[in-house]
Fold these 2 entries.
Entry 1:
Amino acid sequence: MRVGLFITCVNDTLYPRTGQAVVTLLERLGVQVAFPMAQSCCGQPQFNTGYRHLAEPLMRRYATAFQDVDHVVTPSGSCAAMIRDNYPRIAAKAAAEGRGDAMSEAAAGAVAKTHELTEFLVDILGVTDVGAYFPHTVTYHPTCHGLRVLRLGDRPLRLLEKVRGIELRELAGAEECCGFGGTFAVKNPAVSAAMGADKARALDDTGAAAVCAVDNSCLVHIGGTLARSGSAVRPVHIAEILASTEGSVL
Amino acid sequence: MPAFPRAAAVSTRDGGLRANLRHATHTIRAKRAAAVAELDDWERLRAAGAAIKDRTLRHLDHYLVRLEENVTRAGGTVHWAADAAEANRIVTDLVRATGEREVVKVKSMVTQEIGLNAALAEAGIRAYETDLAELIVQLGDDLPSHILVPAIHRNRGEIRDIFRDRMAQWGRPAPEGLTDRPADLAEAARLHLREKFLRSKVAISGANFMVAETGTLVVVESEGNGRMCLTLPETLISVVGIEKTVPTWQDLEVFLQLLPRSSTAERMNPYTSMWTGTTAEDGPRAFHLVLLDNGRTDTLADRVGRQALRCIRCSACLNVCPVYERAGGHAYGSPYPGPIGAILTPQLRGLISPLEESLPYASSLCGACYDACPVAIDIPEVLVHLRERVVEGGEVTVRGTRTVIKPARKHAAERALMRTAGWVLDHPAALRHGQRLAARTRRFHPRRLPGPGRTWTDSRELPEMPAESFRDWWARTRGGPTATRPREQAS
């Protein structure tokens, strides 16, 4: 089984620790990880803001970079959702514009092999106990694209429940959007900030030391809002919890 | 109307409005979820609803002709209106012909859409809203802010004040010493409205459905005011969007399950009124149906956007939308607020001003609306599709003619930025160079950003820039064919 890691542009640039955690975790589970340097961004910011044509080269780049692997794993629910949900749409529109089926083939290949990290662990590797140890109180924020596009369901929680030392706290209104939404946070700052403030309040009420999610992009907004309000809750990507062991506690 | 972000920035600061909306939407949201969970075939019903609507829309020309034939055969008169102005003219002329100067109205979205009350007022005709929430809005000289609960932004105390201060100007005054108890408020409205039901000779309604095979119109409602309006007056004028057509009575069965559970979280709505043409000695003696296009055929021409026409106006998408909950309905600048408004308004009106151009962006694309929609309108898909039209322009249909629109002007800077970012992201070497530059200068990064980035740092801290990107870490620790060592060591 050849597994490629799609790190995503946000993680690559701002959260290398998440990527390092994914590598540590997968290798601990006996998976050999390849990291094609030709990879870049999935094209979600462009596509979701309306620049579909600018997402096309990035979609082609993704398909080419990962053409030699059996599975692609990515620590981002929204990037996985972009690939699975929107690559076929981009391909269909390109075909409708009379530009042939090359994009459709690229999309089909990409869609079939792309997995968000928790999906890969539970569905492909068939594990929920990844041997992790994390002695902190943690609450889980299910991100919108993980929840409603990928339908991750309770996979992340099943993984978290098996982590030794962890104490999970319920989050009120967990399924409500945090207000990030990519360029939404910049285009509609007032509503985004109001949503973020409500989410931060709910997180504070859990009394947890950390909030985890399958997406650093939601966490950058949540974490930024928490930090501004002086909250003690810290954002942490689920990969970092799952990679943590008694030998190397985060 | 200002663009959505500006209007929302004002309404979001209104603590009272936020509290009213939060309370109302969360209550109805929980009730709806329970009502839907009672049915084990909900997903199949939902798929059936979507399929019936899609099939009907594909052959709408055929079903509309059948509808017209059957309405006419039953003694009604059908009028066709291409746009709001034509519809208002037809209705105004019909009321004038009766010699009456006032009409009672059943709550109707489409008459809000065309601004009928204002058009009637200009012609010297007074229109009385008889739905409780519409009455509150009308007396308060206000605008509706929700499809199903137009006065959702008002609380009991505000409603009592509106009744006490304004009812006398419109008819029977509010009883002395009116309290804010719901039962007292309802009784005040009942007494006020009863006069109008018994006096009015003309009623104006919309319809939730029109059954083509018999020419029957259907209104579902909760208060009984609709049934009063539909049965007591001598003349009934129904203004209905052409997309409300269903082929047969059998199709209704699906929607009469989907609509009440999605909208009011009821298993069945309290009043279902159906009327077919005219009947001697029973109900209105004259019945007019005004079939309204007003951008619907143009919307139908768009393969992705047309699914918005499936909408049965249940407002489930509003009640689950986190953006609607904070911004309120007025910020959408249309009788159709919330997620459905964000895709319907720019399609019905066209991308004619900064407001319509901003609506497709009034969403975080969280997808809660799609999950809640009883006819499975993929609202996020249409939002992104319309965003593309805003920034890239492209082919659209305007009044039946294919035309090409230009990209919205104010997006020029954004487009340049997106293009540059796109180029960098498609050239990993350049991306890596940029990452290293950012990492090396990280101690000098400002805590607050200037320019468009300010909207980020106004309410959130920036993440800290790491000393080394993942790519560089991988190259340094794992090597690889394209790996090069970064000049500085990771901390």
Note: Residues 428-490 of chain B form one domain.
Entry 2:
Amino acid sequence: MSSAKEIKKWYFIFLAVWTLIADIPFLFMLFTSIKTQTELLMGNTWQVPKNPTIGNYSTVLHGSFFYYLKNSVIAVSISVVLILIVSSMAAYIFARMKFALNNILYSLIIAGMAIPIHVTLIPIYILTNKIKLYDTIFALIGPYVALSLPMSIFILTEFMREIPIELEEAAKIDGCSMFRLYYNIILPLSRPALITVGIYNGTYLWNEFVFALVLTSSPEKRTLPLGIWDFQARYGSDIPAIMAFLTLSLLPMLIAYILGQDKIIKGMMAGAVKG
Amino acid sequence: MQKDKASKLMQNIGILLFLTPALVLIGIYIIWPIAMSFNLSMFEWDGISPQKIYVGFNNWKNLLQDTIFWHAFFNNVKFIFLSIIIEMPIAILLAVLLDRGGKKFDAFKSLFYLPMLMSSVAIGVLFKYIYDPQFGLLSGILSFLHLDFLTQDWLGDPKIAFYSVVAVICWQYIPFYMIFFIAALSNIPHELYEAAKIDGATQGQYFWRIELPLLSPSIKTACILSLIGSLKYFDLIYVMTEGGPSNATELMATYMYKNAFASFKMGYGSTIASAMFMIITTAGILAYFATKKKEA
């Protein structure tokens, strides 16, 4: 039947059109980043650069790009490690221990998933000032960890409940302590969920903007998203340099995506797909 | 008996130790701030001076009469509506086409994901220049197509700015919902498709009679996500327009931020934040029960 083939052709055309819509902005970014300011002003904006230059990239890399990158790496990695430790400990209790407050506490924490972070912004700003953490990377870690906990605890608890209990019971008879049950049995078996939670929070925090905007102020203390913001405020007229900065800032996520496509996508969706 | 009591005690100590870090962090950074926000909404305070002036419910009275706040709230509502009617159909269509194409279309998926890898700030900055009337990609394309007359001051004109920004947000979120629907479609057994084909069903019939009904729980979930997300949206709007020009793109969150951190009205900012909290929580609960009921 030619009509089925015909239909497939239309599918293909529609998807190709969407490819243009989804990706042309990236080509514009890339092409502009290797143009000189003069070429951009003289030529057509959508044109392929005639004399590609890496000058804009060296401008960016000689600026504070690496500060921002370093701060992002530190803030996000410390936060993710703490999130994994704190949430897996709590999840283990909620998944396995019988005590009176279990369900109430768990429900309260899960309700935290629906809290709009903006309601916490002003008080956290005041608190951060009070405890003299304002304008340090550590100002970010507290809120980053705490605000990620409800979702992380939820995902981990649901996962741990599915782990068969027999292994632990056997270990308990052998006199295994609670900590060793958690550390030697539950944690290794929860690896897939821990990876998902790590990626979910890692990608989310990597792009976090509003807390970094409010809790830091000097360039040496700011994370990459704020770096983009600062850079475009300072170099507003140098569009090629800004595009080079944007391209560089996309690289870490792009590399992570290329290395672990399926895991990254699954991690990003973790917040949405709640069973 | 003695031993039992001792081990029970040990277990309770263990539970306490394991829960303490999470409970302390949640207490300090979530519960206390919510209470504090409502408390601060009763004061006039610049955030710096040691003196907070108690004003009772004055901030709340002012909020009710604040036309900018209601304008921002209305923008949030418009934003919910627009993002749902634009994002969902396109995301569903893309997901269905990709699903039908099978492995052959896998390359498209990776190309579609790209916007998801970029932070909202980066997207905002990028599109500021795409919209630039002189050097922007959009006016470049329009002039290439000899449609120069369509070129606008996309972000500078209060009548257009809101839609320009919403278009970018849709561009950013369509891949997200697309993956969401792809995951849902993958749960539909492919035999169903084969069976429908044998029964002589057209592709259109298959979509309306089988795929769409089976997707409907996912569509509801996606709409709730979009609803809640739209009510608290901040990043991209702040980066692209800071709520301007003349409040055209103002949302509750940008208005709250500006009051608290640009005008240093911490009390009034807290009032807006608390109002947002009540609005979003109510909307969430209503949406939750509305979809629950229909399923039962």
Note: Chain A touches chain B through 85 residues (CB under 8 Å).
